[in-house]
Amino acid sequence: MSQITIDIQSYKDTYLKLKSAIEGLTEDQLKWKAAPDKWSVTEVLSHLTDHSIVFSFRIRKLISEEAAQLPPFQQDPWVSESKANEGAARDILDVFGILLTYNSLLFDRLPAEAWSKTGINFKGEAVTLLQSFQSFIKHVDTHLLQIERIKNAYQ
């Protein structure tokens, strides 16, 4: 098997990117919503933290179970029912950062072959740990663009 090079730093950097994206924003800016059915910056951060919790669980299923069933989650109810916009964006981001650190410590211990382990996502597709890892980073990048759109639309 060829050696796989994993850029753990790009995963860790998602926290710094998010922190930079909200730097200098007021509470009004963090909680502002373009419409009732749209997310605020705080809600985007909450969603990403929820996603990190689910990703943390998926990682552990992938490395420890054969043909692991990877759970989906309902992002909109998770954000709305947790009253995410009533939370403090910086506290939510801190939890995101702690989860990144915890998972990074695990990633540092994994042998190369663990990154090839597969599970089945909610669409019935086989995905590897490496694909899930890369998707997580892309997911954060997508929401960073959303945060910029929210900031630009703020009145």
Question: What would the keywords be for this entry?
Answer:
155 residues, mainly alpha, three-stranded mixed β-sheet, Four Helix Bundle (Hemerythrin (Met), subunit A), 6 helices, 3 strands
H/E element string? HHHEHHEEH
Q: Quote the average pLDDT.
A: 95
Can you identify the CATH superfamily? Answer: dinb family like domain
Q: How big is the Rg?
A: 16 Å
Taking the sheet with the most strands, its summary is: 3 strands, mixed
Helix fraction, binned, reads 55-70%
| Number of E strands | 3
Q: Which residues form runs of ≥5 with pLDDT under 50?
A: none
Tell me which CATH architecture applies here. Up-down Bundle
Tally of structural domains? 1
What name does CATH use for the topology?
A: Four Helix Bundle (Hemerythrin (Met), subunit A)
Compute the separation of the termini in Å: 55 Å
Approximate strand percentage = 5-15%
User: Which strands sit side by side, in order, in the main sheet?
Assistant: 1-2-3
Brief overview:
The protein is mainly α. It has a single domain (about 10-155), classed as dinb family like domain (Four Helix Bundle (Hemerythrin (Met), subunit A)), CATH 1.20.120.450. The chain has helices spanning about 10-20, 25-30, 40-65, 75-80, 90-110, 130-155; strands at about 70, 120, 125-130.
Question: Any overview of this molecule?
Answer:
Helices cover 63% and strands 5% of the residues. The protein has 155 residues and is mainly alpha-helical. The protein has a single domain, classed as dinb family like domain (Four Helix Bundle (Hemerythrin (Met), subunit A), Up-down Bundle). Strands 1-2-3 form a three-stranded mixed β-sheet. A hairpin with a 5-residue loop joins strand 2 (118-120) and strand 3 (126-128). Helix 3 (41-64) crosses helix 4 (75-81) and helix 3 packs antiparallel against helix 6 (129-153). The model has no long low-confidence stretch (mean pLDDT 95).
